[in-house]
Amino acid sequence: MPPPRTRGTALRQRLAELRGPEVPAKALDARALAALAANPGCRRRALLDGAGVDKTALAGALGSPSAFGQSQFAFMRGNAFEARVKADGGAELLRLVHERLDPSAEPPSGAAVPDLAAIGPEGRAARTALALREAAESGGWALLDHPMLALDVAGSPAFLEPDAVVVHPDGRWTVVEIKSFPMLDGSADPAKVGAAARQSAVYVLALEEVAARLEPVPEVHHRVLLVCPKDFSNLPTAAAVDVRKQRAVTRRQLTRLTRIEEIADSLPEGTCFAPDLPREQLAEAVQSLPATYAPECLAACELAFHCRSHAREEGEVTSLGRSARAELGGLTTVEDVLAAAHGRAGDPEDPAVAALRRAADLRAEALATAAARREGAACP
Amino acid sequence: MSLISTLARLEAISTGRAQPVATVRHRHLSERPLVLVPLTTAGEAGAPLGALVGTDRDAPRLLVVPQPRDRDLRFAFLAELADIVLPYVDSYADVVEAAERSETDPETGKRVKVEVDLCADAPQLIVPSRSGIDFVRLLGRSMRFRRTAEQEPEAPHPAPPRVPLLGRWLTHFGERARVPGSSLLLALTDLLTRHWATGQSGVEDQHLGALLAWIDPPGDESGDTAARRAELARDADGQLLCPPAGPATDPAFDNKLLAPAIERYDRARAALAAAEDGLQADDRLGDLTAAERGIRGLVESRTRPTWDAVWRGLDLLRELPEGAHAADRWTRDRWSFTGHRDRIIAGEPPQPRRDDAVTAANKLATREREQARLDAQEALDDPLVMAGRRLAGEAFAGEVTDVVMAYSEGKRPSPRPLVTVHTEDRPHLGERTKVYRSLGGKPQAAEFVGYDGPEGGDLLVLRIVDKMGRGKEPEQGSVPEKGDLVCFTLFEHDQRAGAKLPDPDDTPWTHGGPPGDPEAVPLPEQPDPVTEEDVL
Q1: Is B418 helix (H, G, I), strand (E, B) or coil?
Q2: Could you tell me where the DSSP H helices lie in B233-276?
Q3: Å from A2 to nearest chain B CA?
Q4: Is the ipTM of this complex over 0.90?
Q5: Within an 8 Å CB–CB cutoff, is residue A319 touching chain B?
Q6: How far is CA B23 from CA B4, B28, B379, in A?
Q7: CB pairs under 8 A between A and B
Q8: What is the mean pLDDT of residues B279-289?
Q9: A307-311 average pLDDT score
Q10: Yes or no, beta carbons of B1 and A233 under 8 Å apart
Q11: Where is this region: Disordered (chain B) (predicted)?
Q12: Fold of the domain built from segment(s) A72-254
């Protein structure tokens, strides 16, 4: 159920104020949406992403610029590979879809490749929806090259552009993701495959929204086709990847995202994240949003360096990793843990404190033993 | 991460310096390691950009591929690499000592001792980081199926003669690196993090510059400040002051410096090809050489800091005394090296793309066994590692407070003395749990009898069950005496070989079933097809 219009408008208004006057909203791309799953508890990230704040610019203005960048070699290679996969009306791509996902269907020949050009993301999204409907009615293979999908995120539409969507003769839809990392002897880097799966899951969700508006509702395949270069060549090979788990996680995150209204309400009046504001003011605004920094953020979030230095200043133990915090019970700062370990503070009855003291004693004993041993070796 | 190493990390934060998590060096370091600092081209699989390589820290060899997409230049690079790595490997292959190995006699099926050669020492490859190990594996895979002109005179684009051999060796190094505790191919970041805990997370420890900054910060600076500078500081052109250890390069370097230099090289090469007479060609050759020198300079500027860092890290590690069991594991590495040498001499084909079920099961079993062996040996060698096991309840140390002589029941009573140990540790002991202590390098077993006093108290009664000699009275020194400090472990010190795997002919269906006709010669692995599009 969409929220009542007035509430949605009010929220949109509020988010625009947070972004700052005249600052356009940065579209949420699939990568950003998928990264939400990496750190769902972070209110800072949730609100800034939900409000469409340009986090790269914000991080730069805060003096902790993000380090994400793409080498032009990788970029060129990726584009060349994608062009190759889609050459000849996508014949090779369709062959792979047929072979890996739908071998019982008729072989694809002369698939429809509808023209999706239109003005603006809304126009392209509408054009895509129309093309999908037509393809479903015509009952043959169809390839949609760079379709545009709209996904409702916290009351405002996010526009997503998968590499391709294929319509099968039986009316099912499949998301195709083309990546330029190699599949070597049939296996690829699991971390990269995982990232691709999370990204594709967002496309599947968006496609399901389009499908829900059709009658009868077409099925969106929960297995996506991941196309990669084979071994050391740039010949394409493909594998079906089941994204049900990623889809469930992302869906849950998206429903939780509606909380950004609450988060926005908790901010002091006049808070604004426009990157041209003075640094102190921005730092204060960002500080009013609680973050849950963990080292994993470094790979996913533009603000990570800012959050990291803050976590360090505060002496938070999570800056060493989530597992460290899990071990230390209720003790969350470096100072507290060390004070407890060396007997300066803490309740010795608390099992976490008792374990820490024992660990500190054992460590000191072992280091003393080793030092004595080395001394003994030095002067026999 | 155990609580003890978490504590070490927290202490590193508060002191501003990395803290030890080991008191001895747990890996063997060769006297003459071969250091390899490779760089790769972003977005391309197995397209090296260059490398610094060598055994002399003051004179590394710089290898560069000025246009990484050009297959011929890539082959030239690999041939040069082979000319450095293979002589280094060969220098260890010829020096052998006699050793014994037990083998199954094919006729009688019994285990018999056979005299064989064992290489007296083995080569050791050091790369800066874990992704360097992956890159060695990738290079090995990209080369070992190549065919040389001698093997296939007809095929286009033959590989230079020694390149497939280098591929087989790098594959072997890469595979061996998966075995816990092995030292044929080591990543320096792994070595350093094994011995020191920094005040940052494991993810950040993968950055060699930041890791070294914590362990050995310059001057009085805190490790944290130095590490952040190594990680993030850029010069006026936006280039990182401490280039990443690779093989991946910084995108800002690719876009701002490398891409224009490669473009210049391509232009100079095209101009040279279009030259109309000798004089013009000479001029343009000069341009080409200058362009190539430019790229060489760039590659050297990004690899040299890492090269120096690797040697500095090795210096730091050499300050630690080598753990007692590291030599034993190095001997296994020597066996592994000798075995591969023999397979190559015997003319066996390169390692297959995918292992068959029997090989894969054997490899997994080996890795599990070696992991258990490594865990036990590191604890025995290092009181700090043992402290972690004691905290986890897997070992205990204390003072002997009482020894009562007792004997087994039976025709020939043997000594079974009861030893009471006072310990602060809380081991997970059940009735008759076996515990072990090291007696002159050999494990001596005991059984837990019970607590002297309240259940879960600090007085443990153990019954020593072996290593006391054959006589009625235990041999001198084989039973602890009152007042001795002892350390018992709940884990075994030596790993028995696991359950024997079934014969290949009895491979269960879950693993693909028995192989087909044993007489059938398996098809040799085909080289990767060469496509024109390899060169974009």
Answers
A1: strand
A2: 251-253, 259-273
A3: 41
A4: no
A5: yes
A6: 14, 14, 11
A7: 153
A8: 90
A9: 92
A10: no
A11: 496-536
A12: Lambda Exonuclease; Chain A (3.90.320)
